[in-house]
Amino acid sequence: MNNSPEDKTKQRNFEKYKELYYLSKDVFSEEIKRSTKLEDKAFKYLTALTFLFGAFAFFGNRIFDSILPPTAFLEWLIIIVSGLLLFCLTIAWNILFNAVQLLDLIKIPINLEFFDNNELITIYYKLSEGMKDNLNINRKQIDHKVQSLKRSRFFIRIVFILILALSILVTINKWSEAKITNFRERRTETMAESKDLSQQTNDAQGIPDPKPDENVKPPDFDVVTEPNREVQPPAFDIVQEDFHTGQTKKQNSITKKDS
């Protein structure tokens, strides 16, 4: 049975709107899948940053115990880098936490009344039109999440750079401390060896060890039991009161030795 031109036109329109419906449905569903993938990625980043927080707290406690209070420039630099690292970790974690939150995305409704009251070609067209309008609403929310992930990735890059810098600084600080400790130990050993060598030289030359002899008794001290009569007594003050003014005057008396 041959179809009339009108029937062929209706058939082409039907196929056209049917194809439009399936294309709109694929794009609409792909956008929802994109949101799911972004949430999974944000959750993985958030988990990694949470682990980094724990690692920073564990290793930071040990690092700060060894450098606080800071006394050298390198120790101050370690504290500054650690502060920047903590700041960037906090910012990135907060951004990812907000990105992990579920979005209120619009999905295709199941409305039996709409299907019962309309022809199939109309259903295809209206659903395609509805998906097109709501696709932009969903895309705006998802694009906002994409921007949040981009900002978090920026801070995550800074975090890894700071972790690398902090690792290098801590390694240099430990190496410096070990070098100083080894230098002090070698100096102590050298001084001990020099002392032993000097002691051996003195023993070989018969020079006694310069230590006090505890067996030597102190000398006897004379006990004075008679005064020294040749010593002059101190001068005594003579206090005179002025008859007119009532003021007192002092004069030194001269004490001569009795002949």
Structure in words:
It is rod-shaped, with a radius of gyration of 50 Å. The N and C termini lie far apart (175 Å). Strands 1-2 form a two-stranded antiparallel ribbon. Mean pLDDT is 76; it is low at 253-259. The protein has 259 residues and is mainly alpha-helical. It has one domain. The longest helix has 86 residues, at 120-205. It has helices at residues 5-67, 73-100, 112-116, 120-205, and strands spanning 237-241, 248-252.
Please supply descriptive tags for the structure shown above:
single chain, 259 residues, mainly alpha, two-stranded antiparallel sheet
Radius of gyration: 50 Å
What is the mean pLDDT?
76
Question: Could you describe the largest sheet, including whether it forms a barrel?
Answer: 2 strands, antiparallel
Distance between the termini: 175 Å
Give me the number of helical elements.
4
Anisotropy-based shape: rod-shaped
Q: What string gives the helices and strands in order?
A: HHHHEE
Structure summary, number of beta strands: 2
- Assembly of the depicted chains: single chain
Strand line-up of the largest beta sheet:
1-2
Beta-strand content? under 5%
Low-pLDDT ranges: 253-259
Bin the helical content: over 70%
